[in-house]
Amino acid sequence: MRTIDTTPPGSGAAVQGRAARAGVPTIPLPRAAQDAVRSGAPVRTPSAVPASASTGVADLLRGPVRQARVLMSAPAAVYLQVPTERGSDVVGVLTSDAARLPLGCVLFRPSNGRPLVTVPAGAPAEVGGGRIVVGDLVVRAAAWWDPRPRLPSPRPALLPEGVRQLRNTLYGEGVPHSAFTLPGLPGGPGGPLAALRGAVRRADLDAALRTAVRLVGLGPGLTPAGDDVMAGTMAGLVLLGHPAAERFSAGVHALAAGRTTELSRALLRHAAAGRVSGEYAAVLAGLVGERPLGPAVEGLLATGSTSGRAMALGLCTAIDLVDRTLRVR
């Protein structure tokens, strides 16, 4: 058994507490708590930091307090795995200059101010009751944002010049699509990207779904590039009104179990519901003429080392599948 030692640090053995003198292991209180014990003042708890939370994680934040664990922490993001009735889910605490992921609570501060605590993977945390607690940081949802873009119609018309601009920026003007590669993904005519292009040319959604078997979990990092391609495709099919979007998305998400990271699987689940990053949503808004497209495309392509380009490739794949499917009909 261990007990709390309220003895000031640096005190000699002569003034140590009874528990320490009896040889019982003790846990030293932080200096602020020790001062409070000696003075009789209440221990101050850190004030909650406000954030703008995605409605995609509203059920977790508004629900009962759940014990969570840290998946990863960095200056711009802390990701927490939260156990749920259906398995587990992921919530992120993000700085204002991080990618605006659909599972995130975005602080009103950039990463250069270091508002996020550095905690090791596996460290305990709490999610629920309207807040997130990780280390000494307490975050509360002071505002909400919807990660599912509001488009003009269930099957919105995209500006042809906008689609050309997206493709030229992604692939390179005058460069054949077959030459496009992503780090961590096999290239060449036998690679999964070539197979995906072939499925698109034939407007064959079943073949595209078979390609997902080769792409899910493929690539390095917390969100492998293969997953990002599939997430961009899934979300695009859902938001652009492909008639088989739900079936395709359910199939890809089912494949992700045991094949990829917890964070990436959570993002695939959000994509299946049409919930996307703020950067991806901005490109869609540009494609329907509601905002300038150029800066939005550049913002998406700059996301992560490969994630933004992979998501853009997925969006282009979805645009082609929707176009070819509806044209055939």
Automatic annotation (TrEMBL):
Superkingdom of origin organism: Bacteria
InterPro entries: AllH-like
One Pfam family matching this protein: AllH
Compositionally biased intervals (Low complexity): 10-21
UniProt region (Disordered), positions on chain: 1-21
Name of the protein: DUF2877 domain-containing protein
Lineage: Bacteria, Bacillati, Actinomycetota, Actinomycetes, Geodermatophilales
